[in-house]
Amino acid sequence: MSEAVHEHHEYDVLIIGAGGAGLRAAIEAKQRGLKVGIVTKSLLGKAHTVMAEGGMAASMGNVYPEDNWMVHFRDTMRGGKYLNNYRMAELHAKEAPDRVYELEQWGALFDRTKDGKILQRDFGGHRYARLAHVGDRTGLELIRTLQQKVVSMGTDVFMELKVVKLLHDGEGRIAGCVGYWRATGEFVTFQARTVILATGGAGKSWKFTSNSWEGTGDGHAMALWAGARLIDMEAVQFHPTGMVWPLSVRGLLVTEGVRGDGGVLRNSLGERFMFNYVADMFRAETADSEEEADKWYDDHSAGRRPPELLPRDEVARAINSEVKAGRGSPHGGVFLDIATRRTPEFIRRRLPSMYHQFMELAGVDITREAMEIGPTCHYIMGGVQVDADSQETVVPGLFAAGEVGGGMHGANRLGGNSLSDLIVFGRRAGIGAAEYIEAGQAATTFEQAEVDAAIDDALAPFTRSDGENPYSVHHDLQEMMQADVGIIRNAGELEEARVKLLELTERVKHISVKGGRAYNPGWNLATDLPAMITVSTCVTIGATLRKESRGGHTREDFPNPDPELAKINFAQSTDGGNWDSPVTVVESPILVMPAELKALLEEAK
Amino acid sequence: MGEVTLRVWRGDASGGDFESYTLEQNEGEVVLDVIHRIQATAAPDLACRWNCKAGKCGSCSAEINGKPRLMCMTRMDTLPEGPVTVTPMKTFPIIRDLVTDVSFNFVQAAKVPALMPPPMPVGGYRMFQEDVERGQEFRKCIECFMCQDVCHVIRDHEDNKAHYAGPRFFIRYAELEMHPLDQNDRRDLIREDMGLGYCNITKCCTEVCPEHIKITDNAIIPLKERIVDAHYDPVAWLGRKIRRKTKTSAADAAIQPAP
Questions:
Q1: What value of ipTM does the predicted structure carry?
Q2: CA-CA distance, A74 to A278, in Å (whole number)?
Q3: What are the sequence ranges of the domains in chain A?
Q4: Are the beta carbons of B106 and A159 separated by less than 8 Å?
Q5: Looking at the annotation, which residues of A are catalytic?
Q6: Quick one: what percent of chain B has pLDDT higher than 70?
Q7: CB-CB: which of B53, B73, B129 is closest to A111?
Q8: Radius of gyration of chain A (CA)
Q9: For the residues A294-318, what does the mean pLDDT come to?
Q10: φ, ψ at A33 (rounded to 5°)
Q11: Which residues contact A468 (CB under 8 A, 6 or more apart)?
Q12: Other CB atoms within 10 Å distance of the CB of residue A180
């Protein structure tokens, strides 16, 4: 007999996650007169969005008037190595400018051009300077703006409440969720006509990651368990520039804005090695000498782009190769140098957070010395398969937006396309949920048995007295994923990962936790682990099946892209039994692009 | 390397005490790293709040050797030799161990009247860098709430919380009042309900701000001047009554017409 739940709430739209996508969805649903609740496992304003640095991509054309949505669409598709859901890339490119302007009405203060427009900055893979930004703290500006808007609208926010399971009605429609307050450990049920997942990413399964503790893939896993499909899970982005020293901050993000603003990558010999790693696909638009590249920063018509600004997958692989070839920095990275290229005043004004981060955590003055950097697990392109226009999943009443959604970024995301993704598809999920409710087919009750089972599962670690510490399991998971399912993969290591994941699954079932339920991080981690193992398993399965190299997914044993595999996404699902129920995979054909969009890609080649 | 000892306050609303943990020292570690290693070994239930571990989210505020600091940005090797004391923020009620109930701040946030801009012209608003920079300084705030923690108006006088917004929200009000697009008027509210007058500019808040925002000089003092001017200047008072004009000068309302 499960314990009784004493707290219950009812909403039209329940949003899980309070980052950019969740908050933007809440604003939209609220503006449509619906009763909206937001649940977050942290405090409001602390979501991972806050860590985004460089900016949000939108083809406003404030710096280069020749920019427009068609160029942005093309850049996104090329960056994603054509694995993208073209319709999402199209909607994103078309709608991002309006979403950015809208933020100014709600109080955002972006950096300005000389004539008072929103300033835009260069980033990898974007043909024109396209990222609206505030120094190197754009994510903070985005989340604060949306948070303040949500609060001013009087929205209910449940802070530090961890959702463990989605609930259905008798007909399989989404009907709410169950979770617990971290402060007390008491359970809460939510009855909801629609649920929007906006839970972000899953990077906390890797050892070196830019993700905060929250990135445990809760939404990915809960969607899978609830009957939705996950696509492209093998597509994980390793950001080229994470800190490598001191060890305690290894993986911490160093914004791509450093390179956008003139920073270059060098190996231990002092060479700008990126010139040696320009793939054929990008050769025509990339500079072939340092002189040409350096002219480009001031005037994009005076030279072609520096190779340091290739898409992230290309740069991360290049760094990996340099380190492997023995040309790395003392702590196993390479050098990112802006000190010799820009004045200290410029660096402090454009990159204030980076300046402080290195000064305070590494004792490095980036206006005088080069930074040591290396790839760090940053983002998962894979996610819940959704309808591009409404963000609805195959489970009626369940929507997903932001990083937890799949398809928008294909096999590799361009920098700056994440913040714009959040606001474009957060809004669309809000509309999608409203229209679903309007259609009148929403669930009205949930199955109590699902609540009872979820609570029993969550409390199980307290019933075991001599099981394993959750921290040990998490530690071993991170070590294993880093070693076996990292930036470069092969069949042998992936097979080894599959075996180890089965062992880790068993270990999760034997975890025991000490202490009580009130704000107990050990227990909280124990309830995160099923999601982390589930997502890690899906990544490993996807990586095993995709026998090619494409975007963020690189196979040592299949180093080239396979045109046949460009036609499909691997879609994973389960029968919804237990959290460790076996995953089945189908080949889901990629949407066929209309001729006029295809022409945009052709003509730009 | 040697060893480090952390004396961590452990307990809940009903009381508690210090517990000492001695661990090997690792190069370059911050206080939060040591806390994490304690959680992973001796005390998996040690409660502490954290998210980004990069000084960007403001979750891991605590008092280290008696001073409000972000645990993720305080390197162990910058602290004096000997045991390091870590206690929860004093101004807020204890939930457990290092975690406090900071809901006071979210209550205050809900009281802030939103930005009220004019309709957006085609092609977006025009604002100039020098005009947005004043607000941008305040928008660097990561809501660590250490300025609130150190502010003696509420740190030492619990009953003041009912009518005092605190430094974090004074910079928020200053930001809105200095916003080039804003047409809202919050001056009576700030004076009468937010307790700006209680602040006697001791600058404790400015000293602890991890973002180095000049809270006192750039927000609180200008806000005080602005409110005093509005309240005691009969011409401004009359003008306000008649037209509800909120900005007192052209520079104040620095929205530029689109060329």
A1: 0.94
A2: 19
A3: 245-377, 448-570
A4: yes
A5: 239, 259
A6: 88
A7: B129
A8: 23
A9: 93
A10: 80, 15
A11: A507, A510, A511, A512
A12: 26
| Partner B contacted by A31 (CB < 8 A) | no
Note whether B3-100 and B103-243 share their fold: no
Query: DSSP class of residue A2?
Result: P
Alpha helices (runs of H) in A290-351, residue ranges in sequence order: 290-296, 312-324, 344-350
Cβ pair A501, A580 in contact under 8 A: no
Q: Are A67 and A127 in contact (CB under 8 A)?
A: yes
Asked whether the bond before A344 is cis by omega within 30 degrees of 0, the reply is no
Question: Which of B57, B52, B78 shows the shortest CA–CA distance to B67?
Answer: B78
Q: Are B196 and B189 within 8 A, CB to CB?
A: no
pLDDT higher than 90, residue A466:
no
DSSP B91: S
Helix/strand/coil for A307: helix
Q: How many CB atoms lie within 10 A of CB A465?
A: 7
Report pLDDT digits (tens) over B145-201: 999 999 999 999 999 999 999 999 999 999 999 999 999 999 999 999 999 999 999
pLDDT on residue B1: 76
State the Cα torsion A221-A161-A392-A440 to the nearest 10°: 130
Mark which residues 36-65 of A lie under 8 Å from B by CB.
42-48, 50-51, 60
Res A603: pLDDT: 65
At a CB cut-off of 8 Å and minimum separation 6, what does B202 contact? B152
Does the pLDDT value for residue B259 go beyond 50?
no
Minimum CA–CA partner of A101 in chain B? B124
Enter the tokens of residue A433. Answer: 């949920």
Nearest to B45 among A106, A109, A522 (CB): A522
Residues B3-100: name the CATH superfamily: Beta-grasp domain (3.10.20.30)
**What CATH architecture is B103-243?**
Orthogonal Bundle (1.10)
A383, two tokens:
């996610």
- Nearest CB among A47, A357, A521 relative to B47 is that of A521
Topology of domain A245-377, CATH = Flavocytochrome C3; Chain A, domain 1 (3.90.700)
Three-state DSSP at A266 gives: strand
Chain A residues near residue B115 by CB distance under 8 angstroms: 105-107
Residues of chain A positioned with their CB less than 8 A from the CB of B259: 115
The b-or-e profile of A280-289 (16+ CB within 10 A means b, else e) is eebeeebbee
The answer on pLDDT for B248 being more than 70 is: no
CB-neighbour burial class of residue B78 (10 A; exposed 0-12, middle 13-18, buried 19+): exposed
CATH for A448-570 (1.10.3670.10, 3.30.310.70, 1.20.58.100, 3.40.190.10): 1.20.58.100
Q: Identify the CA nearest to A253 among candidates A306, A211, A286.
A: A211
Asked whether B108 and B169 are in contact (CB, 8 A), the reply is yes
Beta carbons of A514 and B102 less than 8 Å apart: no
Sequence-ordered alpha helix ranges (H) in A396-469? 417-438, 448-463
Q: Strands B67-70, A568-574: parallel, antiparallel or unpaired by DSSP?
A: unpaired
Q: What average pLDDT is seen over chain A?
A: 96
Among residues 458-517 of chain A, which lie with CB inside 8 Å of chain B? 469-472, 475, 513-516
Q: Verify whether the Cβ–Cβ distance B55 to A357 is below 8 Å.
A: yes
A134 and B136: CB-CB below 8 Å? Answer: yes
Instruction: Give which of A140, A153, A254 to mutate to test B binding, by max B Cβ within 10 Å.
Output: A140
Task: Spell out the domain ranges in chain B.
Answer: 3-100, 103-243
Q: What residues are paired with A31 via a beta bridge?
A: none
User: Looking at chain B from residue 100 to 129, which residues have their Cβ under 8 Å from any Cβ of chain A?
Assistant: 101-102, 106, 109-110, 112-115, 117, 120, 123-129
Q: What is the mean pLDDT of residues A221-239?
A: 98
For CA atoms A149, B73, A482, A79, the dihedral sign is positive
B75 touches chain A (CB under 8 A): yes
